[in-house]
Predict the 3D structure of the following.
Amino acid sequence: MRMWLKAEREMKKLTYQSIADLIDVERQYYGMIEKGNRTPSPKVAKKIAKVLGVDWTLFLRCEATKRFLLERIIIFKIFTKHVYKSVPI
């Protein structure tokens, strides 16, 4: 969930439908973007950012952060699995 996006939309008192209409996308697609199930194209991200008055690169930064955290979790799981296998119990 992109909580920052939801918060910005709610502060502007916009619904999924109203913002979707303003940026010319389907309501369901906007909902998927806000829930984090879809990443908008730069063109759509710029439209959303313009309506909400935020920097469109927030979408890129959030995706990069999510990827980084997922990579760290995978590395941690691999490391702990390896360490626990090599430590006698």
In short: The mean pLDDT is 84. The CA atoms of residues 17 and 53 lie 18 Å apart. The radius of gyration is 18 Å. The longest helix spans residues 58-86.
